[in-house]
Specification:
3 helices; 119 residues; rod-shaped; 0% strand
């Protein structure tokens, strides 16, 4: 029986050594495939959201620049409109019309006015 015990002991030693090897192999960090796939999905979702934010801010910036350009153009047009109103008022001036009539057309203001009342 002592021989069998020694044999069992050596067999047990081999089994223990084999289990120790398996423990070392198992002791390495095993990859959790479910966790890895969830991390990939989270990364993709985060990347898509980040790209959406960047694209949206780019669109907002370009719209802001367009708005500023439109406001500048509106101010220029308002100034031009005011300048044209002043010019129209000057051209409609009765003194200017009288001056053109006298100088260029040779017209004069009559000294006496005659009114006829016809019926």
């Amino acid at each position: 029986m002592t021989i069998k015990r020694k044999e069992q002991t050596s067999a047990q030693r081999e089994t223990a050594a084999h289990e120790a090897e398996l423990t070392l192999i198992k002791g390495r960090p095993r990859l959790n495939h479910l966790l890895r796939s969830r991390c990939r999905i989270a990364f993709v979702v985060f990347a898509v959201l980040a790209m959406a934010v960047v694209i949206r801010s780019g669109i907002s910036a370009s719209r802001g620049y367009a708005l500023v350009a439109t406001q500048t153009q509106a101010q220029q047009l308002e100034l031009e409109n005011e300048r044209l109103r002043v010019e129209i008022a000057q051209l409609k001036s009765p003194q200017r019309i009288k001056q053109i009539a006298e100088d260029e057309l040779g017209m004069i203001v009559p000294r006496k006015m005659y009114f006829s009342h016809e019926r």
